[in-house]
């Protein structure tokens, strides 16, 4: 990865009016509606940003949106990148580095995930307290990583305690159920077998998905405080496993989305 490429991406966005955003937000599958909350939006499609990867998943639209929410400047990624699309870890995390160079001081992440913890049900939200990287690689495993920050990054507390606690309080104040747990990130795009769900439970995962962890690793590399929420769209009970229905997963994500938007909006107001 070259710093010059990042600088070109950032210069392009600055020329469009992306001016010192405070908060970066990554929206997961079926969770794109937060952009409707943005005042005075400026849109940059990924395919117009120099060196930016292109979104290929049909329910990821592929644009960066800049503007303000609750009086704070935000930049929102509507559509993220995944290993299962054929991207590498540097592609997947490139936008995080761009948002950081634009000036963000905090990062919010959302995703759709399956519930491994059978006390959690579809339609629940889960604050990610920790994660397990099962993607078989690292976005920091490249030759000149030390140009961008130290090579050996501490991951003892990858998610920001202060923002996480604020989100728990906000959920309580607004009567929103917010679970907490460990997110396991796998490659995909195939869903898990019964045996794999059993393995994930033994490993200590409460939810499983195909994103988020690479972005979190890079955000820690950049000393960016992170808060992350999974919308649980299916129940991964190996003893009663039904064939996956992607349409239903998207529908549940969209149904739960207003609550997630409320949480993020209130947290932005609180910061």
CATH architecture: 3-Layer(aba) Sandwich
Distance between the termini: 33 Å
CATH class: Alpha Beta
Largest β-sheet summary: 5 strands, mixed, barrel
Classify the fold: give the CATH topology: Rossmann fold
Could you say how many structural domains there are in total? Answer: 1
Regions with pLDDT < 50 over 5+ consecutive residues?
none
Q: Structural class of the secondary elements?
A: alpha/beta
Which oligomeric form is depicted?
A: single chain
In spatial order, strands of the major sheet run 5-8-7-6-9
Mean pLDDT: 94
Q: Could you state the order of secondary-structure elements as H and E?
A: HEEEEHEEHEHEHEH
The total of helices stands at 6
The named CATH superfamily: Nucleoside phosphorylase domain
Helix content: 25-40%
Shape: globular
**Whole-number radius of gyration?**
18 Å
Count of beta strands: 9
Beta-strand residue fraction: 15-25%
Pfam families: PNP_UDP_1
InterPro entries: Nucleoside_phosphorylase_d, Nucleoside_phosphorylase_sf, Pur_Nuc_Pase_Ino/Guo-sp, Purine_phosphorylase
Keywords: Glycosyltransferase, Transferase
Protein name: Purine nucleoside phosphorylase
List the main descriptive attributes of the protein structure presented here:
alpha/beta; globular; 9 strands; Rossmann fold; five-stranded mixed β-barrel; single chain; 31% helix; 271 residues
In short:
By secondary structure, this protein is an alpha/beta fold. It contains six helices and nine strands. Strands 5-8-7-6-9 form a five-stranded mixed barrel.
